[in-house]
C-alpha cells in the first residue's frame, strides 16, 4: 500500500450532512401515505394472554389496526425465538412486545396502545440472579462460541500451596444500551418485496434474518442503514423493531414507521447481564502467579440462551501454569441479555484487573510491575503464539506519560483539603478478529473511483476510514474516491460489531482496489460508459488465516479524588495507551478510544439497572434515572497508541478499536478509589454510600 491517506487525521465524510440535518435516519425518510406503529408491552411477568380487546383502541380516531398473536401475519417458527413476535399468546418477561397499534399519526398510535386491553393467566416467576440460584446450569458454549469451562494444571493444589492468595467476588449490575437513535424502522411492502430503512449494525445479516422469518428470498428484501445513531451491540442483529414494522406494514398494506421509546430500550432490546464473579489468584511472594481461577455467573431468559463470555478474558491475559475458568447461567423470567460494549471482556476485566490490584497490594509490589512480571510468552489458553502483543509497552508508556513513578503506593497517602486522591492502573485487551466481506471498486470515466461495500457506519467513522484505505489501495488522492456503505444493494458484508468492522471491510476494499488496479493496467483505450468494476470476496483468505492469538492491548490509568466527608468520587484523569495495530484515522480513532474509556467511567461510577424484583423489570428506565456519564463528569481524558506493525492480521494491519477503550477502565478507577481511600469496592457502581460508611474512610 502506498503511503498516503491511511494514518492521516480526517473528519467524518458525512459530518456536514449530520450537523445540518441532511443525513437521514431510519424513520426520517420522507414518505407518502406513511403510518405509525406503537408497541404494547406486557404487564405480566410470566404467563399466557387470555384475551386481547382491541376495541377501545380501534375506537380512537386515526387508529387503523391492533396487531397481536391472534391476527398478525405468520412468521417462520424456527428462525429465532426472540424474533418470533406476535405469534403466540405467551409472556416470558414483563415488557415483552405483545401487540402493535398502527395509526395515521404517532399520537393516535400511542393513545391506541394505551387503550388496548389485555388479560393474562399468570404463573410464578424468578427474576433475581444469585450465586446460589437453584437453576444455575452449565451452558454448552459461551459467546461467540468459546468453550464454557477451561482447566489447565491443578488449580486447587497450586492455589492452596501459594504463598499469597486473593479470593474475591465482584459484582456488576445490569447495564442498558442507550444509542442516541433508538431501535427504529420504516417498512414498506411493494408487490411482495420488502424495503426497510432500519437502524442496525449490519444490514446484510438483517436482510438474511428477515428473509428467513418472512420466507421470501433475500433478493426481495432491501435493507438500508445509511446513517445509524449508535448501537453498542444492541443493534447487532435484526431486533424487534424491524420485525414488528414489517409485520405491521404487511397487515395494513401501507408503510409503517416504528421507533421504540427511550423507556422501551430498557430490557426488550437486550442489556448486559448482571454478573457475579469470583476470582482467585495464588502467587509467590514476588507476585509470580501460579494459580488463577475465574468463575462467572450470569443470567439468560426463558426465550433463548445468551451466555456472556465473562471469564474468557482471564484465559489469555496473564501467565500462570494452573488455571481454570467456568461460566454458569440462570434462566430467569427476564428479557434476554444481548451484546453490549465489549461483551464478556468488559465485565470480566473489571474483576480480573481488580484482583490483580489486590494481589499487588498483598505482595507489596507495584501493580504495573506485577502485570509485567506475569507477561506470558504464548497465549496461556491455547498455547498459540501471539501475532503481536504489546501490553508491556502500553504499561510502560502509560506509566511514563501518567507520571506513575511518583506514586506513593500507600493508600490514603495523598490529600488536598477534603479530597483524598488516588491513582490506579489496569490492563486491557480485546480480540482482533476479521470476518469475510465482499466489495467492488469501479473506475469511472472521468477519472474518479467508486467503492461499494455494505459496511455499517454506526457513528464510528467507518465510512471515512474505508475511504482512506481505498484511496491508498488505488494509489490515488482520496478526493477522487467515493465510498458507498449501508445498503443491501451493495456487496454483502458483516456487522459493525466485535471491533471487527474496519479489519473485515478494509480487507475486502483493499482486494477490490488492487484487483481494479491490475485490471486498469491491462486495459487499453477509453473506459466503458459504466466504468470498469472489479469485485473481491475475502472468504477464502479469511478462512486461511494462520492459527495465532490475535489481540489488541491497552493500559488504563486513572486518577480520582474522593470527598472525605461525602464520599463523592470525581475522576480527575483518565489515560489510556493502546497497541491496536495500525491506526487508519487518528481523529476517529481517538474518538472511539476516549468514547470507550468514558463508557468505562460510566460503568465505574454511574450506570446501574435497578431491578424491581417483583416484576423483573428495571425501576430506572429512562435517562433521568439511569445515570450515564456526562461531559461534566469527564475532566481530563487522553488516549495514545503505540506504533504497531502486525503483518499477520489483514492487509491494513488494523486490530479494531471499537471496544478496547472500555475494557479495564472501571477496574483502573476502582483501583484508584482503593488507593485514595483504602476502600475496595467490589460491586459496581462505586456509589458514595459504599464509601462513606466504610473504614478507613469513615
Ligand atoms: Mo459490539 S457489543 O460487538 O457491537
**Helix/strand/pairing category:** alpha+beta
The oligomerization state is single chain
The total count of helices amounts to 16
How far apart lie the N and C ends? 60 Å
Describe the structure.
The protein is α+β, with helices and mostly antiparallel strands. The protein is built from 16 helices and 29 strands. α8 packs parallel to α15, α11 (462-474) runs parallel beside α12 (501-521) and α14 (586-605) packs across α15. The protein binds dioxothiomolybdenum(VI) ion.
Topology:
Layout: H1 15-19, E1 35-41, E2 47-53, H2 55-58, E3 63-67, E4 90-91, E5 97-103, H3 106-115, E6 117-122, E7 141-142, E8 146-147, E9 150-152, H4 155-161, E10 164-172, E11 184-190, E12 193-198, H5 203-214, E13 221-224, H6 240-252, E14 256-259, E15 275-283, E16 289-301, H7 312-316, E17 322-332, H8 345-363, H9 367-373, E18 386-388, H10 391-402, E19 414-416, E20 419-431, E21 438-443, E22 449-452, H11 462-474, E23 481-484, H12 501-521, E24 532-537, H13 539-543, E25 549-563, E26 569-579, H14 586-605, E27 611-612, E28 617-618, E29 636-641, H15 665-677, H16 688-692
Parallel strand pairs: 1-14, 12-13, 16-17, 18-25, 22-23, 26-29
Antiparallel strand pairs: 1-5, 2-4, 2-6, 3-5, 7-8, 9-17, 10-15, 11-12, 11-14, 15-16, 19-20, 20-25, 21-22, 21-24, 25-26, 27-28
Helix pairs in contact: 8-15, 11-12, 14-15
Residues 201, 231-233, 236, 339-341, 343, 497-498, 659 line the site of dioxothiomolybdenum(VI) ion.
Amino acid at each position: 500500500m502506498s503511503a498516503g491517506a491511511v494514518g492521516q487525521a480526517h473528519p467524518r465524510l458525512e459530518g456536514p450532512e449530520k450537523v445540518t440535518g441532511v443525513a437521514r435516519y431510519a424513520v426520517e425518510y420522507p414518505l407518502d401515505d406513511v403510518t405509525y406503529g406503537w408497541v404494547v408491552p406486557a404487564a405480566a411477568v410470566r404467563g399466557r394472554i387470555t384475551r386481547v380487546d382491541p376495541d377501545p383502541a380501534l375506537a380512537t380516531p386515526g387508529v387503523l389496526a391492533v396487531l397481536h398473536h391472534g391476527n398478525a401475519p405468520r412468521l417462520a417458527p424456527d428462525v429465532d425465538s426472540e424474533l418470533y413476535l406476535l405469534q403466540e399468546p405467551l409472556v416470558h418477561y414483563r415488557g415483552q412486545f405483545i401487540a402493535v397499534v398502527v395509526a395515521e399519526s404517532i399520537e393516535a398510535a400511542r393513545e391506541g396502545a394505551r387503550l388496548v386491553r389485555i388479560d393474562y393467566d399468570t404463573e410464578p416467576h424468578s427474576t433475581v440472579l444469585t450465586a446460589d440460584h437453584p437453576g444455575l446450569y452449565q451452558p454448552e458454549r459461551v459467546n461467540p462460541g468459546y468453550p464454557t469451562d477451561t482447566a489447565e494444571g491443578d488449580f486447587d493444589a497450586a492455589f492452596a500451596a501459594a504463598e499469597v492468595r486473593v479470593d474475591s467476588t465482584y459484582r456488576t449490575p445490569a447495564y442498558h444500551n442507550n444509542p442516541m437513535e433508538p431501535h427504529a424502522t420504516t417498512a414498506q411492502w411493494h408487490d411482495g418485496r420488502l424495503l426497510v430503512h432500519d437502524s442496525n449494525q449490519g444490514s446484510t445479516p438483517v436482510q438474511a434474518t428477515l428473509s428467513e422469518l418472512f420466507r421470501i428470498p433475500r433478493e426481495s428484501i432491501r435493507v438500508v442503514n445509511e446513517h445509524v445513531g449508535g448501537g453498542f451491540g444492541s443493534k447487532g442483529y435484526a431486533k424487534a423493531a424491524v420485525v414488528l414494522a414489517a409485520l405491521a406494514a404487511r397487515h395494513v398494506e401501507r408503510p409503517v414507521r416504528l421507533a421504540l421509546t427511550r423507556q422501551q430500550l430498557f430490557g426488550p432490546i437486550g442489556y448486559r447481564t448482571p454478573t457475579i464473579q469470583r476470582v482467585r489468584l495464588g502467587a509467590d511472594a514476588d507476585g509470580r502467579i501460579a494459580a488463577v481461577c475465574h468463575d462467572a455467573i450470569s443470567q439468560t431468559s426463558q426465550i433463548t440462551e445468551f451466555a456472556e463470555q465473562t471469564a474468557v478474558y482471564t484465559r489469555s491475559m496473564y501467565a500462570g501454569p494452573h488455571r481454570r475458568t467456568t461460566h454458569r447461567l440462570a434462566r430467569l423470567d427476564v428479557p434476554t441479555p444481548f451484546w453490549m460494549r465489549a461483551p464478556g471482556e468488559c465485565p470480566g476485566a473489571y474483576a480480573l484487573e481488580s484482583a490483580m490490584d489486590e494481589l499487588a497490594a498483598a505482595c507489596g509490589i507495584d501493580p504495573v510491575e506485577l502485570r509485567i512480571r506475569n507477561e506470558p510468552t504464548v497465549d496461556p489458553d491455547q498455547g498459540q503464539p501471539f501475532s503481536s502483543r504489546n501490553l508491556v509497552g502500553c504499561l510502560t508508556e502509560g506509566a511514563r506519560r501518567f507520571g506513575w513513578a511518583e506514586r506513593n503506593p500507600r493508600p490514603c497517602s495523598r490529600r488536598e483539603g477534603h479530597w483524598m486522591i488516588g491513582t490506579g492502573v489496569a490492563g486491557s485487551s480485546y480480540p482482533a478478529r476479521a470476518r469475510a466481506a465482499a466489495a467492488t471498486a469501479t473506475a469511472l470515466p472521468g477519472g474518479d473511483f467508486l467503492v461499494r461495500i455494505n459496511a455499517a457506519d454506526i457513528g464510528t467513522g467507518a465510512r471515512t476510514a474505508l475511504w482512506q484505505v481505498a484511496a491508498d489501495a488505488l494509489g490515488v488522492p482520496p478526493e477522487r474516491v467515493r465510498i458507498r456503505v449501508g445498503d443491501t444493494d451493495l456487496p454483502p458484508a458483516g456487522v459493525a460489531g466485535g471491533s471487527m468492522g474496519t479489519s473485515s471491510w478494509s480487507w475486502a476494499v483493499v482486494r477490490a482496489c488492487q484487483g481494479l488496479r491490475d485490471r486498469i493496467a491491462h486495459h487499453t483505450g477509453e473506459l466503458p460508459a459504466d466504468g470498469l468494476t472489479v469485485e473481491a470476496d475475502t472468504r477464502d483468505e479469511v478462512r486461511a488465516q494462520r492459527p495465532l492469538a490475535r489481540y489488541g492491548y491497552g493500559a488504563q490509568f486513572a486518577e480520582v479524588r474522593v470527598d472525605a466527608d461525602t464520599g463523592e468520587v470525581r475522576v480527575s484523569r483518565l489515560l489510556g495507551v493502546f497497541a491496536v495495530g495500525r491506526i487508519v484515522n487518528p481523529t476517529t480513532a481517538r474518538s472511539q478510544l476516549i468514547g470507550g474509556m468514558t463508557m468505562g467511567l460510566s460503568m465505574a461510577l454511574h450506570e446501574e439497572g435497578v431491578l424491581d424484583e417483583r416484576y423483573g423489570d428495571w425501576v430506572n428506565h429512562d435517562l433521568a434515572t439511569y445515570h450515564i456519564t456526562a461531559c461534566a463528569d469527564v475532566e481530563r481524558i487522553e488516549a495514545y497508541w503505540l506504533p504497531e506493525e502486525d503483518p499477520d492480521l489483514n492487509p491494513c494491519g488494523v486490530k479494531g478499536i471499537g471496544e478496547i477503550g472500555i475494557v479495564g477502565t472501571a477496574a483502573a478507577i476502582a483501583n484508584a478509589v482503593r488507593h485514595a481511600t483504602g476502600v475496595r469496592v467490589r460491586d459496581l457502581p462505586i456509589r458514595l454510600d459504599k464509601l462513606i460508611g466504610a473504614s478507613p474512610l469513615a
